[in-house]
């Protein structure tokens, strides 16, 4: 089976909680559902996701084997602060040892963060707590965030304006997949949205982002793409919105069983 890593190799549920934080590890939260879905996954993807990849009939995606999985995987963008933290970054290989990276963003009832027009005008909070009320809003776009948006536009080959209503998280999560593919010499990158809710709100935001990339007829449970960027012109970028079901009805001790238990099975 494939190992899962965070700040270290994750062997127990307490290791996982240490990475995602106990505040986020609750039934109905994406960190909890993601843990239950991917625990002890082995070298193969969950059967539903593997089927979606195979149905794309893309030679790079059809027979992938998982090599490593990292939880809360940070990808540095234009600075060495505020990285894009991926719920999972999966490093896989297909026939001929062709490398593919998959950035997984799990969602329950959370949105894809703020719209760009709100995010870019929200000032950074200072350290002292008693001062924070003074910095909730900015009169105009925050300079640091303008630079971040410019960087994301460069990586994505887009021209998203500060007044855009696209969800900011979709931008930087896609950029993180592209950057990781470039750093690891991967031949393809996939952004996988794993939706543990049937709410249409997030899917509509996903559709709006796909519209920007000029993908017609966007559907769930299908590989969308390829998309090519100037930052990585020969590497195809794919997107998937996977409608999953919640897994969190199993007890905590079903995660990361002891080796002896796994062997007995």
The biggest sheet amounts to: 7 strands, mixed
Strand order of the largest sheet: 1-2-3-4-5-7-6
Radius of gyration: 19 Å
The H/E string reads: EHHHEEEHHHEHEEH
Q: What is the mean predicted local confidence, pLDDT?
A: 85
Question: What brief labels describe this structure?
Answer:
alpha/beta, 7-stranded mixed beta sheet, 30% helix, DUF6946 domain-containing protein, DUF6946
Summarize the structure.
The chain has 265 residues and is an alpha/beta fold. It is built from eight helices and seven strands, in the order E-H-H-H-E-E-E-H-H-H-E-H-E-E-H. Residues 250-265 have low confidence and may be disordered.
Can you characterise this structure?
By secondary structure, the chain is an alpha/beta fold. It has one domain. Strands 1-2-3-4-5-7-6 form a 7-stranded mixed sheet. The radius of gyration is 19 Å and the shape is globular. Pfam families: DUF6946 (PF22187).
């Amino acid at each position: 089976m494939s190992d899962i890593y965070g700040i270290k190799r994750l062997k127990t549920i307490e290791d996982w909680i240490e990475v995602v934080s106990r505040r986020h590890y609750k039934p109905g939260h994406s960190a909890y559902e993601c843990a239950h879905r991917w625990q002890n996954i082995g070298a193969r993807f969950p059967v539903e996701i593997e089927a979606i990849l195979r149905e794309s009939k893309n030679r790079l995606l059809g027979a992938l084997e998982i090599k490593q999985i990292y939880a809360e995987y940070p990808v540095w963008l234009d600075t060495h602060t505020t990285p894009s933290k991926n719920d999972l970054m999966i490093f896989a290989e297909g026939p001929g040892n062709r490398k593919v990276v998959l950035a997984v963003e799990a969602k329950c009832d959370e949105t894809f963060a703020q719209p760009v027009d709100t995010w870019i005008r929200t000032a950074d909070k200072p350290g002292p707590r008693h001062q924070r009320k003074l910095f909730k809003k900015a009169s105009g776009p925050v300079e640091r965030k303008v630079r971040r948006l410019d960087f994301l536009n460069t990586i994505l080959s887009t021209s998203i304006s500060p007044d855009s209503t696209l969800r900011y998280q979709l931008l930087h999560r896609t950029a993180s997949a592209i950057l990781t593919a470039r750093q690891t010499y991967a031949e393809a990158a996939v952004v996988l949205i794993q939706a543990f809710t049937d709410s249409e709100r997030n899917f509509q935001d996903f559709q709006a982002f796909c519209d920007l990339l000029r993908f017609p007829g966007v559907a769930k449970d299908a590989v969308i793409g390829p998309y090519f960027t100037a930052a990585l012109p020969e590497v195809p970028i794919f997107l998937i919105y996977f409608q999953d079901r919640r897994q969190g009805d199993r007890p905590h001790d079903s995660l990361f069983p002891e080796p002896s238990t796994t062997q007995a099975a």
